[in-house]
Structures are given as structure tokens and as C-alpha cells.
Amino acid sequence: MKEISVTVGTTRDTEALKQAARAHLWLPFTRGDEMEAEDGPTILVSGEGCRVVDADGRSYIDGIAALEAMVVGHGRTELVDVAAAQLQELAFLDVFRYASVPAIDLAERLAALAPGSLSRVHFTPGGAEAVEVALKLARRYFALRGEHTRQKVITRSGAFHGTTAGAMAADGNYWSTRTDDYEGPSSIRRIAAPPACPKCDFGKVSRHLACPHKIEELIVAERPETVAAVIVDPAATSIAVGVPPPSYLSELREICDRFGVLLVVDEIITGFGRTGRWFCCEHSDVVPDLMTVSKGLSSGYMPIGAAIVKDEIAAVFAGDPDGVFRHGHTYGAHPVACAVSLANIAILEREGLVESAEEMGSYLLERLRGLEHHPTFWDARGLGLLAGVELVADRSGRLFPDPGAFGTALRKRCKANGLITLPLHPGNVMFFAPPLTISRAEIDEMVEIFDRSLTETEQELAGFLG
């Protein structure tokens, strides 16, 4: 039998840890040889506010808040203390048959925060699982009403909703989850987004998003009586931070109502203050039929997600003898995760971080748009503390022959200079979603690092032009 050593923390040096990671740790979306080529993985060991520190003592501004999750920032000992207290009181229970006080309290709190009649909460271990719940609920809702043909779900090309089988099918063939060996359910229908060109083909919204009337056309083409739901990310993070005007979601709400189709809004990234509102759909005064949340719900301090459902939909399940929703997760409604999420929401309220996100987001966008002197700069767009900078080969808007290569090179340069960010598909849109606690001075520092890194990458521009 192998000898196994288990410690909290480690006395091993960084190189030994990297070697162990290369041999045994399988990171998502990462090939082992890529880690080795980059002398990685980078091992983060601590964090405070908007900064993280690696095993070699290097400090970075976390420009993406640990994949948009840590809205209240790193190093919140208050949340650690809440988790420890709940672990001592009730660490776990059979969530299929019993309820915990934290789960009840959190469901009640979410019902109060969510817009309109969104008030029934189904907890999950994370965001992708919440999307699975929403899509299953939508189809089952219609089956209980006798509308068994309503099985199709419409999604936008390029959208990302998670990597479980059902959620991945709704990803709209998102570039990083698309594989030749998985086509997904035949009930998924994708509406193509416009091509990446400087002018919007539809003349209304971001050039990366299909206008609502294109979704309407698809509903009609598929026949409304076969369509259960439309699912959208209201600020389309994965679709190059495609931020539509408020009218986009309002028009989509009207279309769904007209055809009796449920509207599912994925707020996993945009929820809990990220866009300057508790939920992004509030910018449009739209109440979806189902809403999925995760990430900012606990600020990543514990894994948790949820599908929040309108009362009117839940009532159909409650009033039917076969209304049991046959779906669940062992770690859904985990009492520790629920307790931490309640404390996390309290921090957001107490420190006014939702309002701060609106103010700091305007400042961040102003600073990013100040980078227009760069020859590769095309556009900076965003909503609250969710922003993207689009980069092109020249001022005509021509894309790089390999946008991903340029984005990867820029990401590495930013990291070397002390900034964590990432490129979004097709690779030439750099993403910013820092903790909501970020200050003006930290925004200045973040943009200065990005500015310098972009200059250094542009000096190698000929290599990216083919």
C-alpha cells in the first residue's frame, strides 16, 4: 500500500508541488503538457481583498474574482467563522428528506431578493446543476399541464451554461465545451449569433448577440407548441461580453409570453451585484420564469447553486398527484453552504457592494475606454464590474488570423506583470470581473498593468498577423 501523507498546508517547496500536480492533478480545460510548458501550474496559497499570492510569494490583482465568484473578495474570515460554527452544530444531513435551518433561512432570503414572484428555491451544489434543474423543471411543468410536445429549449450560439450533460447541450456549442463526441440532446435548438464583424448585422444590439426577433423566428419555425423554454445569460459573458440594451430582455419576455414559452435567465455570473443590481434582469425590469444562480451566492467560499422558480410554476407541481420533481443532489442545500451564503449576502448589504459595483463599474469602463490609443483597441464594453476589451489586428476591425493565440499571449503577459485575467472566445476579448470591493486605486493599478502588458504584446504583433 502506498504511504500517504496528509497535512494542512505543506512544507514542500514549489517545484515539488508542481511536479505532484503534473503527475496527479487534472485541471479543467488544461492539458498536462501545457502546464509543464508554462512551468505550472501556478499555485495560489493566500488571498486578501482583490489580491492573491502564489507559492513563490508573487502577488497578483485578481481581475476575474476567481472566475467571477468572489464578489466580497478574498480573505473574509467572517465567512470562515460561519462555516466553522455550522460544521460544529450540524455538518450535514439527508437533504432529500430533511431540512436544515440555514437552508430554510436562505430560501426565504432569496425569495425576498429575487424579483417578482420568483420565490421557490431548489438548491444545487453549483451553477451547471442549477441549469439542469431549470431545464428539467421547464419540461416537466408542461408535461404536468398536458403539453407533452413542449420539449425543445432554445439557446444562443456561443452561450455557456455549464459542463454537465444537460447544461453543456444548452451551451450553444460554446467553443471550450464543444467536442465531436458529444452532440447533446436533439431537443436543443441554437439561434446563431451574428458573425464577429465591426457592424451589427441586425442593427440593434451588440454585434455578438442575435436580436430577440431572431429567437422569435426560430420559435415559429420550430412551432411554439414544441418549445418549452428559452435560456439566456442577460449580459452574455461568454459571447464576448455582449451587453444588450435593457429593451433586449424586455422584448424577449414579450415574445416568450406571446408563445407561451418559459424564459430562463442564467444569473450564475451576473447575480449578486456583479452588474450593479442584485440581478442583471432588474436592469430591464424583467421577471423570468426561472432564474439560476451560483458563484456570488456564497462568493465561492462554499460550493452552492440554486434554481429559483415562479410561484405560478411551482403551483402546478403542488397541485398534481404526479407533481414530485424527481431530481436532486446529495450536496444540494448543504447546511454549511447555506449558512455561508446567508452571511455573504449580509456582507453585500452591509457594505453596499451592489451600489459600489455600479459606481466602480462606470469608472472601470471609463479607464478601459481610455486605452483607445492602442493600435489593437476596438471596443470596451460592460455593465457594472463586468467588462471586456475587444482587440483587433488593425483599426479597420479586421480580426487576427488566430485570435486565440493573441489572447493567450496577452493573458500570459498580464500574469507575468501581476494581473490575472483571461481571453473570451474567439480569444481577442479580454475579460475583467474583479471583486466588488475593488477601489479606484486598484482599478487604476489593474488598468495600468493591462495597458503595459498590451503594449508589450503589440510589440510582437507581426507574429500574430500571419
Would you kindly provide a written description of the structure presented here, covering whatever features stand out?
This protein is α/β, with parallel strands linked by helices. It folds into 2 domains: 42-72 and 352-464, Alpha-Beta Complex (Aspartate Aminotransferase, domain 1); 78-350, Aspartate Aminotransferase, domain 2. It is 36% helix and 15% strand. It has 14 helices and 15 strands. The protein has helices spanning 14-24, 32-37, 65-68, 77-89, 101-113, 127-144, 165-169, 212-222, 246-259, 311-318, 335-350, 353-369, 403-416, 440-458, and strands spanning 44-48, 51-54, 59-62, 118-124, 152-156, 188-191, 227-232, 262-266, 290-293, 305-310, 377-382, 387-391, 419-420, 422-424, 429-432. The strands form 3 sheets. The protein has a 7-stranded mixed β-sheet with strand order 4-10-9-8-7-5-6, sandwiched between helices. Helix 12 (353-369) runs parallel beside helix 14 and helix 13 (403-416) packs across helix 14. It is globular. The protein starts with 13 loop residues before the first helix and ends in an 8-residue tail after the last helix. The model is unreliable at 1-8 and 194-206 (pLDDT under 50).
